[in-house]
Design a protein that fits this description.
This protein is of the alpha/beta class. The protein folds into two domains: about 10-160 and about 305-360, Quinone Oxidoreductase, Chain A, domain 1; about 170-305, NAD(P)-binding Rossmann-like Domain (Rossmann fold), CATH 3.40.50. Helices cover about 25% and strands about 25% of the residues. Helix 5 packs across helix 6 (about 190-200). It is globular.
């Protein structure tokens, strides 16, 4: 299929927003990618900036040169490889932030996000160019792209790529019993979706931990019964008070910091689960508080995971949007055109203007 009616220079080149080197970002031109037999090329229409993009620029995955950033996007299928059967040019599609190799042994063993080695399903803006470009490449397209229903807007669907998938994973891996008690530490976009996921999983008491007023409001909107402000009270004491001294069945760490991880262990009751969805971008170690861990014998389970990807996962999340079970769009506080990406990235990176999530429009 030929390129669309954009200017002729884009038949050979495209605009991409890249990490030029650690600490430096900007626009450059790159060739439009070509698909392999099982792949697809997608013309980007809408994307989101993630905090992990800023971790990458600071060196979280090591040095990179002119790496296209971004891993949350929807778009229009531009062209497909010869072996692609489910997709056609013109389809409006959602790609998961994680695009596993589904034939890999890790995938066959039930851990597709780890295909190709630890965190190997994390390809966009890591081992290959990401989605902050006019076109992006998707491997194993039949298994990694989901067609978006006509009645689901791009602005909602794009949140499924990472925020819903990761946040809900926190609830899923938290082993939440129906009517159980849950605390979600940090109410950024992932924590907010973990809160929504806890409600969907049937939690009876949901406690959000957050200091920012706007995020406290969103936490209650997504299902938090109580919000604990760590700047004004002792989080451990308050959560033990709310749970009659028992602690919670499930603590979800959604920040990626040593202090919140330790707090999660402390507030989890014996036999409970600590579910980690935070990105630990700094330091060499995280610590487990020895006594609250029952000196190793408190039957506290620590589960971790990388954002689940794949067509089936994306289809399920889109189904929740269609059914009105969750609406992620209130998390979008800022919208920029792709040409204004440098300012958009600054707002997201420096947490300016009470930002929660920044959406990028490409057309």
């Amino acid at each position: 299929m030929p390129f669309d009616d954009r200017s002729s220079w884009r038949d050979k080149a495209m605009k991409a927003f890249v990490m030029k080197e650690i600490g430096s970002v900007g626009f450059i031109e790159k060739p439009v990618p070509e698909p392999g037999p099982a792949d697809a090329i997608v013309r980007t229409t809408t994307a989101l900036i993630c905090t992990s993009d800023t971790h990458t620029v600071r060196g979280g995955i090591g040095p990179r040169e002119n790496l296209t950033l971004g891993h949350e996007a929807v778009g229009i299928v531009h062209t497909v490889g010869s072996d692609v059967a489910r997709l056609r040019p013109g389809d409006r599609v959602l790609s998961g932030a994680i695009t596993p190799d589904w034939g890999d042994p890790a995938s066959q063993n039930g851990f597709p996000s780890q295909s190709g080695g630890p965190l190997g399903g994390f390809k966009f803006a890591n081992s290959k160019d990401g989605v902050f470009a006019e076109y992006f490449h998707v491997n194993d397209a039949d298994a990694n792209l989901a067609v978006i229903p006509d009645d689901v807007a791009d602005e909602a669907a794009v949140h499924c790529a990472d925020m819903l998938s990761t946040g809900f994973m926190g609830a899923e891996k938290g082993n939440i019993p129906i009517g159980g008690t849950v605390a979600i530490l940090a109410q950024g976009p992932v924590g907010l979706m973990a809160t929504a996921g806890a409600r969907l999983r049937g939690a009876g008491l949901i406690i959000g931990v957050e200091s920012v007023a706007q995020r406290q409001v969103l936490a209650r909107r997504y299902g938090a019964d109580e919000v604990v402000d760590f700047t004004s009270v002792d989080v451990v004491e308050r959560i033990l008070e709310l749970t009659s001294g028992e602690g919670v069945d499930t603590a979800i760490e959604a920040l990626g910091a040593d202090i919140t991880f330790q707090t999660a262990v402390k507030i989890t009751k014996p036999g409970g689960t600590v579910s980690v969805v935070g990105y630990f971008g700094d330091g060499d170690f995280v610590r487990i508080p020895r006594v609250e861990w029952g000196v190793g014998m408190a039957d506290k389970t620590i589960n971790t995971g990388l954002c689940p990807g794949g067509r089936l996962r994306m289809q399920r999340l889109l189904r929740l949007l269609r059914a009105g079970r969750v609406d992620p769009t209130p998390m979008t506080t800022h919208t920029f055109a792709f040409d204004d990406m440098e300012r958009a990235f600054e707002v997201s990176d420096k947490k300016l203007e009470d930002v929660v999530k920044v959406l990028i429009r490409f057309e």
